[in-house]
């Protein structure tokens, strides 16, 4: 395992530059063929690769434990947003994105696994356990998605005027469905309702001193590998139909004059509003976002409307009782003429992957 220069978790491998992008794609070439390497090496690498996953305020509230025949995903309560996310909904969604990343990284290396979610009722922090590994052939589709993990990022600038194709929306919806959730694409009237709800949620959150303090903490974490640095936050509020999160301070990301009129807004939802369904929601969010990345579609999650009880109820109404809202997504085509934000930093692998139980056993 190693890290690339940006501090992002990565594999020891060749790096390839994506044309016109400052993103680094790390290929999966190893000196030892994947089929000859021990399982514990694959588990540790999959856990490291999951460090690329998105999380609310870039809290990365997870810790992986590599065991001789299992990989465990634990929540880290110290990195939970206690004021913003008292129920742990966004923490579980964030950890679900990491779980999906790890599952894909294992599939790319030719491993299938059984996933038990919330396997131990006496251990609330143990969110998932992967066991029962067997070797299948490396999955080329998963390999492609692993590459997408390394270029995916949140771009909060207004999107360009280019519409998102129906085919791309179909693929993104199918990826969500494959993880047991659903995606509702909002019509114009629903987008207006969403815009009003997002405005209301922003006002409620701006008026709450505890929420402001929490946001302030996670937007002033320079050098820690967590939180949101100024380079990824807009230098002024972008012109968007639905207001994005007010981070309480201007960043340094130039946003240009555009308006996101061509953006599509969608609601990711499912049948239940429980911890295991939030984990599934995170897995679906990861699947949607990586599929979108593959299609050249930019995604910005909007969770303020879910954090505030009253606006969460508005979203429920938009779903006409069909399910529980997990998160809103803005989908669009990023402006190709200007460079987007840099990668948001990540914690060093050693701080999120515990290999102490297998040290010495790894190849
Ligand atoms: C559950 C969840 C909620 C999020 N909510 C928001 C949000 O409300 N506004 C926003 O701009 N970004 C939101 N994000 C994006 C994160 O801030 C972003 O993933 C994180 O900072 C890491 O950056 P990256 O996606 O560029 O790797 C959310 C992400 C997740 C997983």
From TrEMBL:
Tell me a Gene Ontology molecular-function term this record carries.
oxidoreductase activity
What PANTHER family does the record point to? NAD(P)H NITROREDUCTASE RV3131-RELATED, NADPH NITROREDUCTASE
Species assigned in the record: Micromonospora echinaurantiaca
Which SUPFAM superfamilies does the annotation name?
FMN-dependent nitroreductase-like
Q: Which InterPro entries match?
A: Nitroreductase-like, Nitroreductase/BluB
Q: Which NCBIfam families match?
A: Rv3131_FMN_oxido
| Source taxon at top rank | Bacteria
Output compositional bias ranges, type Basic and acidic residues. Answer: 14-24
- Per its record, how is this protein called by name? Nitroreductase family protein
Which residue ranges does the record annotate as region Disordered? Answer: 1-36, 224-245
